[in-house]
């Protein structure tokens, strides 16, 4: 008998992949997002749009569901803290309770590795200390606290996946920054500076997060457990930026290694009174100029949120060995491969420019 999986956030960077991959794996899919616009229509299943903060919507989307893969979240870290808590904590609590009443079997929840406290020189496994970086992190941590409080033997059986910073198709937050830096610098520089060094980070392609969520769903031993998901490619900040320039084909020249403290100084500038607002406003103006110059769709709004700014002076190398030990392997273990694939999609959609 075909099992039914509810995918929340089905229009999003990860949820969009989950819908297609779940169907390919043989599931009947119920796809949910705030509206039906942009949500892939399952061949087996249906789209059930609506705001999950509404009790009636939760009851409606849960009808006939065997499993839940919850990817929906408020991603804007500068949103009102109460709104973040309502979307990222309270919805998880109420959705899980609705799943409990509907006798759902599994509840797979997507969280974030940005919850980990910085730890220079050491990969962060699932037992590393937690230190949320702001209201967004607190809201994601609140959802985890609730699920873990239900215990490992809870029903539905829950699993939490903590994803490294995500890039992928349709991304309008973290991915947008990676895609925008080169074109914005190119507005005034015929040759871009190509630094090396800086704090190391692992990222993860959105498709690999979707694959990991379904991998966890299909395995009983993942019940009541937490797993990291990340690529195999810890890169220094400067080297990653240079890789994005190469993917675009932008001309650049090496400028040597970033000096110790350089990015920390930049991060302090963001956190100074009015600093973030000034940089955000400048980035908005620069991106509008990129859109006009290249005749792009105004689909992106690049912004570096205050919690992501902490990555300028903190390493975030995520150890995904626990999930790998079960047999999971990413499709995009190297950032260079994954970013080029993502860039081609954005260019085909005319969200970012092409260069000769």
Arithmetic mean pLDDT: 92
Report the principal-axis shape: globular
CATH architectural grouping of the largest domain: 3-Layer(aba) Sandwich
Annotated CATH topology of the largest domain: Rossmann fold
Strand content: 15-25%
Beta strand count = 13
Helix content range of the residues, please? Answer: 25-40%
Number of helices: 11
Order of helices and strands: EHEEHEHEHEEHEEEHEEHEHHHH
User: How is the biggest beta sheet arranged?
Assistant: 7 strands, parallel
Report the span from N to C terminus.
52 Å
Spatial strand arrangement across the major sheet: 3-2-1-4-5-6-11
Structural class: alpha/beta
Residue ranges: pLDDT <50 for 5 or more in a row? none
Radius of gyration, in angstroms, nearest whole number: 20 Å
What does this protein look like?
By secondary structure, this protein is α/β, with parallel strands linked by helices. It has two domains: 190 residues, Rossmann fold, CATH 3.40.50.720; 131 residues, no CATH class. 38% of the residues lie in helices and 15% in strands. The protein has eleven helices and 13 strands. The protein has a seven-stranded parallel sheet with strand order 3-2-1-4-5-6-11, with helices on both faces. β4, α3 and β5 form a beta-alpha-beta unit. α3 packs parallel to α4 and α5 packs across α7. The radius of gyration is 20 Å and the shape is globular. The model has no long low-confidence stretch (mean pLDDT 92).
């Amino acid at each position: 008998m075909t099992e039914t999986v509810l995918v929340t956030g089905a229009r999003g960077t990860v949820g969009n992949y989950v819908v297609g991959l779940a169907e390919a794996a043989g599931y009947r899919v119920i796809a949910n997002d705030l509206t039906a616009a942009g949500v892939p229509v399952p061949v087996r299943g249906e789209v059930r749009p609506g705001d999950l903060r509404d009790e009636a919507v939760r009851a409606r989307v849960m009808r006939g569901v065997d499993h839940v893969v919850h990817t929906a979240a408020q991603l804007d870290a500068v949103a009102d803290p109460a709104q973040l808590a309502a979307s990222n904590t309270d919805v998880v609590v109420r959705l899980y309770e609705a799943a409990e009443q509907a006798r759902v079997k599994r509840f797979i929840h997507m969280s974030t590795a940005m919850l980990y406290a910085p730890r220079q020189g050491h990969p962060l496994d699932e037992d590393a200390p937690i230190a949320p970086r702001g209201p967004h992190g607190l809201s994601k941590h609140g959802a985890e606290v609730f699920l873990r409080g239900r215990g490992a033997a809870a029903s539905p059986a829950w699993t939490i996946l903590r994803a490294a910073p995500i890039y992928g198709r349709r991304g309008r937050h973290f991915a947008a920054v990676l895609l925008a830096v080169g074109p914005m610098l190119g507005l005034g520089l015929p040759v871009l500076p190509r630094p090396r060094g800086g704090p190391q980070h692992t990222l993860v392609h959105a498709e690999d997060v979707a694959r990991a969520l379904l991998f966890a769903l299909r395995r009983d031993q993942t019940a009541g457990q937490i797993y990291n998901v990340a690529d195999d490619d810890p890169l220094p900040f400067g080297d990653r930026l240079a890789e994005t320039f190469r993917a675009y084909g932008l001309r650049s020249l090496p400028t040597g290694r970033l000096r110790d403290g350089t990015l920390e100084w930049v991060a302090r500038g963001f956190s100074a009174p009015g600093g973030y607002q000034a940089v955000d406003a400048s980035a908005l103006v620069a991106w509008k100029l990129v859109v006009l110059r290249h005749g792009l769709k105004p689909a992106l709004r690049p912004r570096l949120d205050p919690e992501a700014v902490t990555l300028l002076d903190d390493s975030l190398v995520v150890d995904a060995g626990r999930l790998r030990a079960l047999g999971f392997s990413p499709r995009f273990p190297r950032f260079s491969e994954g970013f080029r694939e993502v860039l081609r999609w954005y260019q085909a959609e005319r969200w970012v420019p092409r260069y000769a």
